[in-house]
Design goal:
With 128 residues, this protein is of the alpha+beta class. It is 23% helix and 30% strand. The mean pLDDT is 94.
Length: 128
């Protein structure tokens, strides 16, 4: 089964040899998806903007893979500080409004996020 790298607009992972996401068969996995503005290749300053962009990038990755956010099975959310959860939850509920049809999620406080990055998403999806 061949692995396909999924490239979305933006300079992902700096100079590290890591793609934004891959699709292997029906499984789509992401690397760390940040709140980067693809027009500037910089993480936006405010936490709400970072959450908005990160969730938008998830949508873009899944569209490229031939799926939608309904295909997400699990998402990890890395936050620098617990206060970021409010912005994440706003975008989470917007992406998954039906509380009976949400993927599992684990939020991890991780203070080693680079620069002014306040959050990062990582997901697994099944695009059948």
């Amino acid at each position: 089964m061949a692995r396909q790298v999924l490239h979305i607009e933006g300079a992902w992972h700096g100079d590290q040899p890591i793609p934004p996401a891959t699709k292997t068969g029906p499984i789509v996995t992401s690397g760390g998806v940040s709140g980067m503005d693809p027009a500037t290749n910089k993480v936006v300053e405010d936490i709400e903007g970072q959450a908005k962009w990160a969730f938008e990038h998830v949508r873009r990755i899944l569209a490229l893979a031939g799926g939608t956010t309904d295909d997400i099975a699990h998402m990890n959310v890395y936050v620098k500080a617990r206060e970021a959860r409010a912005a994440v939850n706003t975008e989470w509920v917007a992406m998954f409004p039906d509380e009976e049809s949400r993927p599992t999620r684990h939020t991890i406080q991780y203070d080693a996020l680079a620069g002014n990055m306040q959050l990062q998403l990582q997901f697994i999806a099944y695009v059948g």
